[in-house]
Amino acid sequence: MPKIYIDNVEYEVPGKKNLLEACLSLGFNLPYFCWHPAMGSVGACRQCAIKKFKDENDKQGKIVMACMEPVEEGVRISLKDPEASEFRANIIQWLMTNHPHDCPICDEGGQCHLQDMTVMTGHNYRTFRFKKRTHNNQNLGPFLNHEMNRCIQCYRCVRFYREYAGGRDFNVFAAHNHVYFGRYEDGTLESEFSGNLVEVCPTGVFTDKSLKKHYTRKWDLTQAPSICHHCGLGCNIIPGERYGSLRQVIARYNGKVNQYFLCDRGRYGYEFVNSKKRIKSALLKKSGNKFENVEKDILLSELSKFMANRNMFGIGSPRATLEANHAVRTLVGEDNFYQGVSSRQQNLMNDILDVIQNGPCRTPSLAEIEQTDAILILGEDITNSAPMMDLAVRQALRQSPMSIVERLNIPEWQDAAVLEAIQDRKSPLYIVTPHTTKLDEHAKEVFRLNPADISRLGFAIANTINSKAPAVPDLDKDIKSRLGGIVNDLKDAKKPLIISGTTLQSEAVLQAAANIARALHFHNNRTEISFVVPACNSIGTAMMDGKNMEDLMAQEKIDKDAVLIILENDLFRQMEKKQVEYFLKKWKTIICLDYYEHDTTSMATVVIPAGAFSETDGTLVNNEGRAQRFYQVYPPIGNIQESWRWISDIMAATGHKETKNLQNLNDFIRSVAESYPEFRSIVDITPPPGFRIAGQKIPREPHRFSGRTAMNANINVSEPKPPLDPDSALSFTMEGFQGKPPSPLIPFFWSPGWNSQQAINKYQIEVGGPLQGGDPGKRLLENGGASNGSYFKDIPEQFKSKKDGWLLIPLALIYGSEELSSLSAPIQQRIPDPFAIMNNKDADQLKIKEGKTITLNIDDSHYKCKVVIEEQFPQGTIGLPVNLPALSGIQFPEWAKISGESK
Amino acid sequence: MEKPLTQHIRADREPLSLKEYEKVGGYQSVRKAIKELDPGKVVQIVKESNLKGRGGAGFPTGVKWGFMPPSEKSEHPRYLCANADEMEPGTFKDRLLMEGNPHQFLEAIITSSYAIQADVAFVFLRWAYKISARAIEKAISEAYDAGYLGKNILSSGYSLDLHLHTSAGRYMCGEETGLLNALEGKRATPRAKPPFPQVSGLFGKPTIVNNVESLCCVPHIVNNGPDWFKKLSYTEDGGTKIYGVSGKVKKPGLWELPMGTTLREILEEHAGGMQDGLTFRGVIPGGASTDFMVKEHMDVKMDFTGPTKVGSRLGTGTMIVLDDKTCPVGLLHNLQHFFAQESCGWCTPCREGLPWIERILLALEKGEGRQEDLDILAMHCKYLGPGNTFCALAPGAMEPLQSALKYFKEDFEKHIQEKGCPWRS
């Protein structure tokens, strides 16, 4: 590693970085604005000025920008040099000539990178006496506020939005000191990653609109390390609470998963916790069909009465933790526990587990996807089903062209030069879906096919790569002619990636993807495969194995005194409405443990208020097989409790034999680890609840947290004892260890002088890299190696359209398809009305025009949808967004009839 | 006196047609280079001639060409861009060449493109130069018809396509890398160097950007040899120079003179000296981005080194003369207004500093100036230097300001003390 001299002291630094990265990694507080660890350097803001010297004798030196200077053996620089320091202070002075005096009323205050850099450079006196330039603001939609007067023109927003996230409707306009960052006209920002502008912007130009509705300063928030529950990727988040309600969700850095960013569903979905539909107290149906609120002790006493000596059956949930699912399983007994998914879904998940565990290919982490250099997406619209995977794929598009950058000796971090050298070149991307996707414009080739034909194409690709993979009989000629390109690109790549998933509800598609990966691995053992799964614990609960709820539904005789417990699951979303109704009506006692009211809770006899993600804790396993733990942010109000705690209480109330072994979270974690060999290592993913540093817990509140005495003064003037947290090494106060906690326990990023999210630099080993102590989470699934498993052989037949019916194909929607975020107020503004996608020829044949409403009839169920026409959509089929409220419970694949236009 | 660049330009400036130009020896250098010389040899010749860039920076043209990677090893297409975005205030020499002899310009582009093995050439033309646009467009069409452009020029196997691009009008497009970005259809902000355009230029390919006047020297160097070119000059820097003078002189205009002609000769002999009743106070010798030269400097030889010895630069060699009845603060305000407006907005010191300077100068002119204002101006002169900003626009803007503060300090102080512009009363 090269040695450099900073203010005449020798340091060893990593070779391929720039001097700003080297200085920050060493812990120096060198100010900057336009550099971003995920986006590299452009040298625009001039804030990171340092002095560079020719040799030891050069006393004068030259001012250079640290972010644009490569680390070179022996280079001599100075940070303390008076001219460089004065220049850095002048940069702030120049920025302050136009910056409004908004701090007291600006949402960014207290977590503002500009504030931090201003203090860091020491500029403090205003000599500019003229008028500031001002701008008009725009309405950019429900997620972001826009306050352009505060802009310091660091260009990060436009670089992130356009270059990193590929968005088009946001740009920089005008020139000189009038440059304007905004949309070509007012309107909702289209990118699924627009919310990241909140964290990327170093000032208060872009702020969280949902936070503004219940604004709280960063230092006043109670925060904890958590995991997003809105898809299967398991991005790390930091929710923040005050006065008993959830205020915001921001990204939690994890170098292996989501790194610095979140998708908008993950950022704004949290408002479901504040929704009117939240269940806040226990409900009991005594007589008739009306629920009565009951206190916890009454509930438990009632339960102990009618649950004693009765058979209990439990249905788990793929959106609940391992601990909660296992708790129910322990309560009802292994034989009476059923996975909370349909048998089709279970088969899909078992296929995925089989491939990951027994297939030869490794599943990359989300961040590792960025390093792949040829991608085939079989059957998934990842922009909607796993949005952060779309963001990772966009970075992977740069991977293959990096060879040009290397050849021209351009450093990787010199972002503008890299993009200039790469031009329009991209890693080859192939997309095979029924409908158009946002990534289409970056794909080398797209195929618009129905699921059966997608699968056939996949099997054919595998067979072309390696003849040992089964061949496809009667393969369509047009498809056959297009195979060569894909196969060559996949074979030429250094690190090819196959992506598939469960959205199309087709095992055949998954199996085809598995065959491609297996065949390709034979040729290149760095081939990787990644699957999109629907829920935050789909993989975890699938690993628990066992029967699925259709097995329970198929049981003819159910003891009429038996009790059914449903854990955090709206069965109407998993299976068809009439089936579920029929099933539920068989039970006299149904206990629903959940956090919001839905169709299943309305049919229950007991509803128990479970904690939502911010009010509970536990372990989830994401699509990569990474087990991650999330912690309660604040003790839930009223009778709300963690699901596992309710089960523990019910065990106590019903005299269950495991009661004394399962009292607190750690008991449940250990029980899970002991009951399943595959979960053995989840005990180690975070420090145990007894973990202390110098005898202290890790505080959830920063040392500047205010008002804890005054907060409850309306109830009682005496300051209450802070709530205890026996379940983790975190405390619900500001007392505790003031240094950096172990990475899985980081509740917020802060360091002296670094109040903004840029403080993340201080927690990393090297800026932009893994957190000190390693990124949180542990991979549980590793591939079995080439000798395990074999090619799938069930090749579906070619799709045949029907005369009197249309095959319904499920399509994922970022806003609307996911259960919990669909209850969040800002997200609801983005959910479209139900629509149906058809091929234009089919529409013409039926004389249906775009925008008209049609009714789809499946048996006795009727669904009204607006027609959307796509020229390439596979004929004979109709695409429907999954699980929009009006379309809930459709069991794909389904055949439907269309009954004319509605007026 | 030999005037290779302007010898055929008519008094009414009607451009020569291709045939007329060929009659006086036009396109000979294309024949000679393409048929008799290796591309590398042409580069060598231009290097030896000591031709220096006439766009303002004065970088040796042959050396710049020499940084192009070998054609067999590089990405293609390779590009030559002729920087015809003449927008430096006070500069109007390229206009003369393009309007008066567009075919000389095209010949220069073709010969130079051959030397660097460019496949495509662009003329990046200032939007306001509409007469040049028409002349160049017509000339390109004639050149294609005559086989000097297109595939297999003069059956040599060398092909070159030439396109005229008229810009949307910002000064930053005259900056080499800003030009490349504008030509690509992007915002006209500059690029960091390294990587240099020879490595990653237009569309990421090897590219050379040269000024119009620099290019127009090339055919004559190729025809007559580097030694001839060197002998045209009074000093080490080769060739002639088109000098220009504007301001209140008797005969403002352009003259092609040996490189290294003295300031005195240009101002007094060719420009006829100051108008009656006016005294010379100073001159900005190379377009607005250069430092003032004053009476003491009249005998400086105006080549690329002479002015630097007295704290200025040759720049474009077109001078703006300051007389004793014009307010220097007002002159500076005019210039800084231009620079502030033309800032691209990319880097902080230029974007925020130049408008501050402009407002101070306006305040001085309005009689609202304060003593501290001079300290602020001095701070800007110190810190808006090369390397501190992203490109040379702001450092250029500081050159007339810092020299005005040096030579005309009294005038600034009078504005403050007398609370107004002494020239207005």
How would you portray this structure in words?
In chain A, 25% of the residues lie in helices and 18% in strands. The mean pLDDT of chain A is 95. Chain A is built from 27 helices and 37 strands. In chain A, helix 9 (322-332) crosses helix 25 (665-675), helix 10 (343-358) packs across helix 19 and helix 15 crosses helix 17. With 903 residues, chain A is α/β, with parallel strands linked by helices. Chain A has an eight-stranded mixed beta sheet. In chain A, strands 33-35-34-37-32-36 form a six-stranded mixed beta sheet. Chain A has a five-stranded mixed beta sheet with strand order 2-1-5-3-4, covered by helices on one side. Chain B is of the alpha/beta class and 425 residues long. Chain B folds into three domains: 18-231, NADH-ubiquinone oxidoreductase 51kDa subunit (Rossmann fold); 240-323, Ubiquitin-like (UB roll) (Roll), CATH 3.10.20; 328-417, de novo design (two linked rop proteins) (Up-down Bundle), CATH 1.20.1440.230. Helices cover 41% and strands 11% of the residues of chain B. Chain B is built from 16 helices and eight strands. Chain B has helices spanning 18-23, 28-36, 39-48, 61-66, 93-100, 102-116, 130-145, 176-183, 212-224, 226-231, 263-270, 328-342, 348-366, 371-383, 393-407, 409-417; strands at residues 79-84, 120-125, 161-166, 207-211, 240-247, 253-258, 280-284, 318-323. In chain B, the strands form two sheets. A four-stranded parallel beta sheet of chain B has the order 3-2-1-4, sandwiched between helices. In chain B, helix 6 crosses helix 9 (212-224), helix 12 runs antiparallel to helix 15 and helix 13 (348-366) runs antiparallel to helix 14 (371-383). The radius of gyration of chain B is 22 Å and the shape is globular. The model of chain B has no long low-confidence stretch (mean pLDDT 96). The chains are: A alpha/beta (903), B alpha/beta (425). The A-B interface holds A 42-47, 49, 62-64, 68, 86-87, 90-91, 94-95, 97-98, 127-128, 130, 152-153, 155, 172, 174-179, 404, 408-410, 414, 416-417, 420-423 and B 75, 170, 172, 187, 191-192, 194-195, 199-200, 203-204, 340-349, 351-356, 359, 363, 372, 376, 379, 383, 385, 387-390.
